[in-house]
Amino acid sequence: MDEASDVMPSELPVERRQRHTRDRTASLNSLSHFKSASSKHIRPKSTLRNRGSNASMKSVGSDTDHSEIIAPIPRRHLLQTSQSLHWLRVDTSSGDEWLNRGVSPVSASSVGSVFPNNRMSNRLSFTALMEHERTTVGPSSTADARILEDDQGNIGAGRRFVRWMHRNNMKNWVVPSAIAASTLVKWCIGFGTYSGHNRPPIFGDYEAQRHWMELTVHLPVREWYTYDLQYWGLDYPPLTAYVSWLCGRIGSLIEPSWFALQASRGLETGGSKLFMRATVVIFDLLLYIPALYTFVCAWQGTRSSRKRHAALLTLLFHPALLLIDFGHFQYNSVMLGLTLLAINAFAAGHDLFGAIFFVLSLGFKQMALYYAPAVGSYLIGKCIYLGPVHGTRLFLRLALTTTLAFIIMFAPFLPPFSPLSTIAAPIIRIFPFGRGLFEDKVANFWCFTNVLVKWKHIFASREGILIKASTGLTALGFLPAVAALIFGGYKTRLQKDAQNHSVDVSPSMAPASPSSPTPILPLLPYALLTCSMSFFLFSFQVHEKTILIPLLPLTLLLSGAAPTDDVFLWGALGNNVGVFSMWPLLKKDGLGLQYLAMLILWNRLIGYNPFKLRYGHFAGLLSSVVHTVIIILHLIELAVTPPARYPDLFPVLNVLTCTPIFGLIWLWSIKRLVEVSWAISGLPGKREKEPSSTVSAISTTSSSAMFGHSPMRGEMGVRATSLGYASGRGRGQADARRRALVTSAGGDQEH
Amino acid sequence: MNTVKQSHSSPTDQLDDSQKPHAPKSTSAWTWLNFLGDVSKSEVDVLLLSMAFKFLLFPAYRSTDFEVHRNWLAITHSLPISQWYYDTTSEWTLDYPPFFAYFESLMSIPASFIDPKIVDLQNLQYDAWTVIAYQRLTVIISELVLGAALLRFIRVSVDPSRQRILSASLFLHPGFLMIDHIHFQYNGFMFGILLWSILMACEGRKLASGILFAVLLNFKHIYMYLAPAYFIYLLRSYCMSPAGAIIPTRFISLANSVLLVFLASLGPFVLMGQLPQLLSRLFPFTRGLNHAYWAPNAWALVTAADRVLLQLVKHLGVELVVNESGIASTSRGLVGDTVFAVIPNIKPIHTFIVTIIFQMVYLIKLWSAPTYKSFVAALTLCGYASYMFGWHVHEKAILLVLVPLTLLASENYAYYKTFVIASVAGVFSLFPLIFTPAETLLKIVYSFIWGGMILYPLHKQLYEFPSSLPWVLLESFENAYLYGFAFLQAFVTLFPLMTGGNPDTEFLPLMATSVYCAVGLIWSFIRLSTLYIIQQY
């Protein structure tokens, strides 16, 4: 909450102070805080309470957390409850008088005994008394009240865990332990086999990555993209090559035979496998996990720490990514982590850093291009938003930085380091248009329609048409995202005359504006989803693993949503179906068990039960149906071997199941784009009005997932200003719009 | 065999509960499950998440115990019962009591449907995916007995929130994870039976408690370590009136039911006249004082002292009668039989006498105060004394101490601290079981997370300030000891890297682990003994 309250130095000083004192009461059990005035008025009798009632005490302070407003349940120590009085021979009717007398500290602390030679230990042990109590009175109902309460909410195991940790005063340990646990899970997935394990002569993705380490270590840079292309020639951009080189160097230090040129092909020793697995985990720890953490801070900075922690948990155990990176073996988390860092930088207003991160992401894996239209149009939209002067300046800076970053990345392939012709090899390798419309069965439009229309046969000699068609369809697919971002930027652009109208516009707004977040930021995750999904569905040469790229923005959106939200339902459905769409691949890799374990683990963690019927939610009903179909398909696959005529029967059925879902998610993301952009910019010319009056009913559904926080109790200003991303410097008339957006977004969100 | 039945049916219905959380729990279909009470969502969380995690461990390292159990599946499936204890096709002969053999026989039926090669006696070292998945799965499923018992402990506890933490700590115990789910054994299942038996004692159903313990003894005879406590407790509190008069009906019913259990187990072998053969398999007295890796008990310290003395003797040139064969056995510390060089050798009878003396002290106390708490403490101490002074103790036997000790942990701070020291040292002493590099990271991180999640909240709830200066000092020593494990782990990890796997010093990390853990376990043993003797029940 600190970032949020810093944002509002003048508007709500009183409330802020109050909130701070209340925050402190969160640690009621440390003695010094007993003296704080606010704690007294919350619980006048709090000194009476004993260690036994710690659980309820800790929740007192959590009132900054809206969803969790749980009135402190006054739980007395057993000594003080009337049911315990009979063995103390105290008259129960004395009631309050007796309670006010309190319990002397000595007797309270001698619940146990001081080891070993204490006088108290010779008395009857207190637990023995309690036990006696239990048998005479029966199970106490108050003891489990808190746990039962947890059970009633429709929340996942992750949130329950976070609550438990917070209540047991381990708030600061949630993030480290979650990261440790997820790393442990990732490591354990790595016990399994990997892509191409024990399958000579060509092996699989694992061997590809290992081979790149081998060749980058031993060959000069300009031969990297030309060396023995038949055997896993390098076809990723230079950053992958550099990273491979680094890993190869370190690995060669440990054991040179792991990366011996030629001799190490197909090497599968335990040591080298361990090393390779360790590199993925280390890159994940260095890049992806910090990116997730900064995402949660940057985009959900104004939410309660419990919600942020729960969101982090959701993201840390993302099943599809874990299975592919740590099971199948790839380095997607590096690419996704860099993209995520770029998005975080945009949210924090550091557009240039964001651009550099995104270029790095592109430079690691060309698949980041799926995000490029959204990122590019966001930046253009921002330039438009800033107006002609600042916008142009920003645009030039961005163009310059991006070009420079690209040039530096490709520098070894450019003059003066090597002849200009060298650059052709990586470019050709990176964009493989010669490899056909699709390879394996992949759940996209082309493979889906291929069941009826045999594209490859019809256009056997005219591949060019297919390329054009797929490019055109893809462009059509991501057009809504581009349009929404640019149009949003245009609609919300800063106008000079606006400064005369707004009262609270500071003169410092204009110079500060290039680094302040834009109102179109809420569109960005949806735009990323639309773009990447459209690429996945319509573009050329898509792999089934590429579903990870649309799943990232979808999971980001999901992480902030409540379990009854539309966003949550679509996100969970998309993720599960996404994992299912990779089932043929995982099965081939021997990762069936890991597939099952991760699905159970993650769904339990986020509290998603697909078979719970949710009437009135299209996504909910759809998910029940789809999951039933998936389970049936799995069962049939277990029981029946496909007929010889259709060896690919199950992969095709898989494609037929998954593609419609991905298509629906794509359509849904477009719908959400429209809604959110309506909420942002749908009220032209009314900016001067009081925000609360301009709230439209339609926008209640908008942006609630990521950015909605119920602005209760007059904290609207605080929350609205920062709108999910921490930096709130750009106050002004944009602020009014944001407030409108957020006001509208509340309500349906928190539970 | 009630428990086995439960183990097979509880997962499905717990899953079901989680899927319809608001369904009334006491509808007729589920009434037979009432013994678990309302299973809360957080409990299902623990079950499901830990299950999912254990699935991931299927391909992990597994010891020869895996092949041992596979071989037993084959023996019990393909041979007639008369051959079970005679078969020597594999070197891993059947050396568990008959109930466990029956259990294996039961498990071999589905196994033969899944993959007939699993139960092929000649198919040694079979490690196809089917057998791995099947055997690992049986461990997870049979462990549900433990889960059910732990849930019951929450229901009957006076302080459910604390007991919930303790129950979770047992279900997720790194000991079980390492021994059962990586190394491969069925401890979760058998400790489940033990906990059911203790639970019955807690609920005052002492006859059931006795029967369950008899059943357990026929699953694995290592639980004989605990038998004296059971014997005294049941005799004093069940078969005798508080005044000390024997109640014949109770005595006879208990004796008869225990006899019946043994008859069901050993009867067929007695009829076939195979009892001597069976017993010779169960109690091989041909092993040495210490296991290959010294279990961190009193003898580990004695052995270490012998090693140190030998070096002293060598360097100082003191004239002493040195046992030559002892010098030979010193260099490794890994070799099976231990022969002392300086200290007089220890014979099985010595260890036996020491153990009995210690146990007698606790049993006299238990006789005078036959309450449930006293019983659990005496049970723990009986196991502890056997672990400390027993002949050829395995490091895995530490679970015999840690599991019942956990039930006492929330009693008060003194017990809690004892529990912490014993748990940390005990879990650490299991680390050498898992020595492959990939699993090493797993065991350390998992144990660390486990320790943090369990110990921190309990510490918060139970902490008491030390009352005087000696206790302050003692507490700081204890904490220093606990922090020392970080350095020990660093040493164990780094030492082989620095020496480059020199075989002469290979045993040093193991010896250091053993000695350091032994110090903590012995201290914890002294603490617990003192606590038990002075506490009035």
Automatic annotation (TrEMBL), chain A:
Pathway in which this enzyme or protein is active: Protein modification; protein glycosylation
Keyword match Membrane: yes
Main location: endoplasmic reticulum
Record-level GO cellular component terms: endoplasmic reticulum membrane
Segments for region (Disordered): 1-67, 726-751
Spans through the membrane: 173-194, 274-298, 310-329, 335-360, 367-388, 394-414, 465-487, 523-540, 547-573, 593-611, 618-637, 649-668
Cellular localisation: Endoplasmic reticulum membrane
Biased composition (Polar residues): 26-37, 49-62
Enzyme nomenclature, EC number: 2.4.1.-
Bilayer topology: Multi-pass membrane protein
Keyword annotations from UniProtKB, A to Z: Endoplasmic reticulum, Glycosyltransferase, Membrane, Transferase, Transmembrane, Transmembrane helix
Feature: compositional bias, Basic residues: 38-48
Pfam family, one: Alg6_Alg8
GO molecular function: dolichyl pyrophosphate Man9GlcNAc2 alpha-1,3-glucosyltransferase activity
Family listed: Belongs to the ALG6/ALG8 glucosyltransferase family.
Protein name: Alpha-1,3-glucosyltransferase
From TrEMBL, chain B:
Annotated stretches, region: Disordered: 1-23
Subcellular localization: Endoplasmic reticulum membrane
Catalytic activity, reaction form: an alpha-D-Glc-(1->3)-alpha-D-Man-(1->2)-alpha-D-Man-(1->2)-alpha-D-Man-(1->3)-[alpha-D-Man-(1->2)-alpha-D-Man-(1->3)-[alpha-D-Man-(1->2)-alpha-D-Man-(1->6)]-alpha-D-Man-(1->6)]-beta-D-Man-(1->4)-beta-D-GlcNAc-(1->4)-alpha-D-GlcNAc-diphospho-di-trans,poly-cis-dolichol + a di-trans,poly-cis-dolichyl beta-D-glucosyl phosphate = an alpha-D-Glc-(1->3)-alpha-D-Glc-(1->3)-alpha-D-Man-(1->2)-alpha-D-Man-(1->2)-alpha-D-Man-(1->3)-[alpha-D-Man-(1->2)-alpha-D-Man-(1->3)-[alpha-D-Man-(1->2)-alpha-D-Man-(1->6)]-alpha-D-Man-(1->6)]-beta-D-Man-(1->4)-beta-D-GlcNAc-(1->4)-alpha-D-GlcNAc-diphospho-di-trans,poly-cis-dolichol + a di-trans,poly-cis-dolichyl phosphate + H(+)
Keyword Iron: no
Pathway note: Protein modification; protein glycosylation
InterPro entries: Glyco_trans_ALG6/ALG8
GO BP: protein N-linked glycosylation
Top-level taxonomic group: Eukaryota
Keyword Chaperone: no
First-tier enzyme category under EC: transferase
Pfam family, one: Alg6_Alg8
Protein's membrane topology: Multi-pass membrane protein
Sequence ranges of Polar residues compositional bias: 1-13
Keywords: Endoplasmic reticulum, Glycosyltransferase, Membrane, Transferase, Transmembrane, Transmembrane helix
Gene Ontology MF terms in the entry: dolichyl pyrophosphate Glc1Man9GlcNAc2 alpha-1,3-glucosyltransferase activity
Family: Belongs to the ALG6/ALG8 glucosyltransferase family.
Name this protein carries in UniProt: Alpha-1,3-glucosyltransferase
Organism: Suillus fuscotomentosus
